[in-house]
Amino acid sequence: MEREWNYHIQLHLHLLLIVCYSFVPVESLNEEGAFLLEFKKSFVDPSNNLQSWNSLDSTPCNWSGIGYADNVRVFSINLKAFNLSGNLSSCVCKLPYLTELNVSTNFISGHIPSDLAHCHNLEVLDLCTNRFHGELPTQLFEMASLRKLSLCENYVYGEIPEEIGNLTLLEELVIYSNNLTGMIPSSLSKLKRLGILRAG
Ligand SMILES: *[C@@H]1O[C@H](CO)[C@@H](O)[C@H](O)[C@H]1NC(C)=O
Ligand SMILES: *[C@@H]1O[C@H](CO)[C@@H](O)[C@H](O)[C@H]1NC(C)=O
Ligand SMILES: *[C@@H]1O[C@H](CO)[C@@H](O)[C@H](O)[C@H]1NC(C)=O
Ligand SMILES: *[C@@H]1O[C@H](CO)[C@@H](O)[C@H](O)[C@H]1NC(C)=O
Ligand SMILES: *[C@@H]1O[C@H](CO)[C@@H](O)[C@H](O)[C@H]1NC(C)=O
Ligand SMILES: *[C@@H]1O[C@H](CO)[C@@H](O)[C@H](O)[C@H]1NC(C)=O
After folding, report:
1. Burial (0-12, 13-18, 19+ Cβ within 10 Å), 103
2. Which residues form the Leucine-rich repeat-containing N-terminal plant-type domain (predicted)?
């Protein structure tokens, strides 16, 4: 009788252990990975070039186009020529260490989101050779960390605002082939580091 009782307890213990182990949580995707998946949602990716962006990974360190360092985490996104269409989502700005966003040479359309101005640490923004249309958001000229701003070959209209003089770190401004109008503002002369200007 006692033996049988022991046996039952043991069996229960085993079952309990099996049940517990099968519920040990798999290490889940970190917050930055989740932000990137949210960012991906607004793209259409017919060539499956973002296939490696997998929610089962624990970090986005191996995802294509992502620059990741253990100490700073996601610092760059470079999706040049990934055959992407759809829209650009400003939710990338939730990535606190993002310094480069480069989506040049795709088929991305819609407006350039004015909320990109929330990417406070962004140094390089390259949106060239896409199908962005609508008015140039003047908020882009509040991004004080920008060193390179490339918007060439899109369908953006409007004027370059005087506020461009606030981008004191700007080294490169590439805006040719758009529907921009008006004069190059005189405040541009305040940009002492500006070495490359391709407008027109
Ligand atoms: C892109 O934006 C347009 C208009 O705002 C919307 O109709 C469309 O569904 C968006 N596409 C994606 C892939 O989110
Ligand atoms: C982009 O799409 C074209 C046409 O479908 C295809 O030939 C090309 O290999 C694709 N390139 C990439 C990088 O996916
Ligand atoms: C990234 O790839 C390396 C080499 O293939 C692998 O050892 C590592 O586990 C991968 N990391 C993640 C988070 O997927
Ligand atoms: C965007 O990425 C491409 C490919 O890596 C690179 O050639 C280009 O210089 C980048 N744009 C900027 C503004 O750095
Ligand atoms: C940005 O530039 C405008 C026009 O040149 C100026 O009035 C404004 O004070 C500047 N803002 C900042 C935050 O420097
Ligand atoms: C851009 O300008 C061209 C002519 O300069 C005009 O034909 C075209 O309709 C304009 N596009 C937009 C989106 O404003």
Report:
1. buried
2. 29-66
The tokens describing 97, both together, are: 């260490």
Q: Is the dihedral of CA 110, 167, 120, 103 positive or negative?
A: positive
CB of 155 closer than 6 A to ligand 6?
yes
Distance 138 CA to ligand 1 centre (A): 22
Q: Mind listing the pLDDT tens digit for each residue in 17-29?
A: 444 444 545 579 9
Cα gap 77→50, rounded to integer Å: 12
> 10 Å Cβ neighbour count for 160?
20
pTM for the model: 0.86
Q: List pLDDT tens digits, range 125-174.
A: 999 999 999 999 999 999 999 999 999 999 999 999 999 999 999 999 99
What is the CB < 6 Å shell around ligand 5?
A: 162-163, 165-166, 187
The b-or-e profile of 44-58 (16+ CB within 10 A means b, else e) is: ebeeebbeebeeebe
**Residues written for the chain:** 200
- What letter does residue 41 receive in the DSSP assignment? T
**Ligand 2 shell residues, CB under 6 Å:** 47, 49, 81, 83
